[in-house]
Specification:
The protein is α/β, with parallel strands linked by helices and 209 residues long. The protein is built from 9 helices and 8 strands. The strands form 2 sheets. The chain has a 5-stranded parallel β-sheet with strand order 2-3-1-4-8, with helices on both faces. The chain has a 3-stranded antiparallel β-sheet with strand order 6-5-7, with no helix packed on it. Helix 1 crosses helix 9 and helix 2 crosses helix 3. The protein starts with a strand and ends with a helix. The structure holds adenosine monophosphate (AMP). Adenosine monophosphate binds next to helix 2 and helix 3.
């Protein structure tokens, strides 16, 4: 199974990817998590990425394509993967298309902008393993602590209201055109992601059968 999760920021890609990863036994490749790890470690990629992420803009295509070429060539991707956050522009999708990697399905989680703004205002992320939680919809067992690794939960720097607005506008202008691109290839499946986490997972698994 080689799957692309395509949706606006905050639509639930990360959460559904976690569930699918467990269900299918394949890794999730999250470009956002890769970039945030690089920022934490102070690498050259991290320094470059921070400027774009803090403003809610996308990292240049040539940089992202290089990062993903290397990541998808790693051993753990041999039996499949779930892409969370890539491709995000037509150029990235065209490059992926030109590579020898055959994508089985592109899953679009449909969520209204108002819901996204509401969700992102309460989102928490583990500073160690990048698992996501929510102050209301997905509370951790112990407040402020990750259920999985015990890491500290933090609010992402790019989840501020101004940056969220800019990220949503970037999504509509640069990523949304990919829906047409993959629909025309017969790969696109759309699932309503407005409801709770569990019911969305059920719908997603139904769509993937
Ligand atoms: P995410 O965690 O997927 O919301 O990504 C966080 C941020 O990382 C985005 O707002 C972008 O600035 C950057 N980013 C992640 N994936 C990509 C990509 N495929 N292309 C360009 N920028 C990206």
């Amino acid at each position: 199974m080689r799957l692309i999760l395509l949706a606006a920021p905050g639509a639930g890609k990360g959460t559904q990817a976690e569930k699918l990863s467990e269900h299918f036994g394949i890794p999730t490749i999250s470009t956002g998590a890769i970039l945030r790890k690089n920022i934490q470690e102070g690498t050259e990629l991290g320094k470059l990425a921070k400027k774009y992420i803090d403003d809610g803009n996308l990292i240049p295509d040539d940089v992202m394509i290089k990062v993903m070429d290397a990541r998808l060539a790693e051993d753990d991707c041999k039996n499949g993967f779930i892409l969370d956050g890539f491709p995000r522009t037509l150029t990235q999708a065209q490059e992926l298309d030109k590579s020898h990697i055959k994508i089985d399905c592109v899953l679009n989680l449909n969520v209204a902008d108002e819901t996204i703004i509401n969700r992102l205002s309460g989102r928490l992320e583990c500073s160690k393993c990048a698992a996501t939680f929510h102050k209301i919809y997905r509370k951790p067992k112990v407040e402020g602590i990750c259920d999985f690794c015990g890491g500290k939960l933090v609010t992402r720097a790019d989840d501020t209201p101004e940056t969220v607005k800019s990220r949503l506008s970037t999504y509509h202008s640069q990523t949304e055109p990919l829906l047409k691109f993959y629909r025309e290839k017969g790969l696109l499946k759309t699932v309503d992601g407005q409801d709770g986490i569990e019911s969305t997972t059920k719908e997603v698994l139904k769509a993937l059968k």
